[in-house]
Amino acid sequence: MKKNICQQTYTNGILEHLNFECEVMFRYALASGLQITPGIAAAMSKTGTELHKNQTIEEMDHDETSNPSPNSSNHEPIINSSLFGELVAAHNELARIVAPATPRSLTVTEGAARIKKKVFTTIPLLNRLMSAAISCLIIFIWTGSSEYVGVEGGGNISTSSGLPFLLNQLNFLAAAGLGSSFYALFTVNRFVIERTYEPVFESAYWIRFTLGLISGTILANFIQININPQVSDAMEKATVAMLGGFSAEAVYRILNRLVDAIITLVRGGTKEYSTSRELLAKTRLNEQHENQRIALANNLVSLHEKIKSEPDKEIVSQHLAKIISDLTGEVVFSDNKPSKKPPAK
Predict the structure, then answer these.
(1) What pLDDT is recorded for position 42?
(2) What is the mean pLDDT of residues 223-249?
(3) Does 101 score more than 80 pLDDT?
(4) Phi, psi of 225 (to 5 degrees)
(5) Cα dihedral angle (312, 316, 319, 325), rounded to 10 degrees?
(6) Backbone angles phi, psi at 228, to 5 degrees
(7) pLDDT over 70 for what percent of the chain?
(8) What b-and-e string marks burial along 194-217, b requiring 16 or more CB atoms within 10 Å of the CB?
(9) Cβ–Cβ < 8 Å for 343, 330
(10) What is the C-alpha to C-alpha distance for residues 42 and 98, in angstroms, rounded to an integer?
């Protein structure tokens, strides 16, 4: 009995979840003017009626358990098995209609779309990112109001120290945080407007925010970039830190280029040496082939002269055998049959 009740409760929970997601997608599709088939509405209406009936039965059982009577009977909610198939089919069809939005993204962003005239939303990530952006803005303004920030060489690692160095570094870090939070908020805002925001990727936004803080600090302290000669060094570094926070990928590419340049300098000597050795070997081989061609041409000219001056065919044949022996490295007799013995050295 208890097993049947637990199974029925689990079944009701799945059915309620499917029905809830279908309602969210149904409202979004209606509000967006998307076409919905009558079968979807019929399946949702049937599910709603069934769930309401089961809820009424559960309330009756609860009342009878609290106030038992002799004529009370145990009511078990009954779920039609075919109802699941119809609702799953309606769910799949609605998911296809509202794509690229998903039931999860629509559920999360539905509350944010309804709220009006409020600073914070129902999406936790947006609230945290806005808090981080406001905190970075307050720190940037507070450090910028100090007399130690903005002076020449105030944030230089090699020349500055103590409180001036700390305040300048906090100013650079806050500037990087402003750029990073601006990028994250801009990205999330686009997904919220399109109703495609997925909360499962929240950690990726915070990783991107942290990378922005690090890249902005690296760009301000270790990479020298002159934007405008008329602007102070500290102001340039704060601007560069904000740009580094906004585009962490740019800093990543800059660091990769520097590493590639260092590797090229280290490997350049070995590569040039190998190239010169290969070029020398090719030159020597070309010279050897050229000498062989010249020697062959001389032998052919000599043979031509022998043919004209010597009527004896045996002498001509011996001279021809010598040319062949020089080319092939084998001893050739006058009958043009090569011997199996190697030539004498």
Answers:
(1) 82
(2) 79
(3) yes
(4) -130, 120
(5) -130
(6) -145, 120
(7) 65
(8) ebbbeeeebeebeeebebbbbbbb
(9) yes
(10) 18
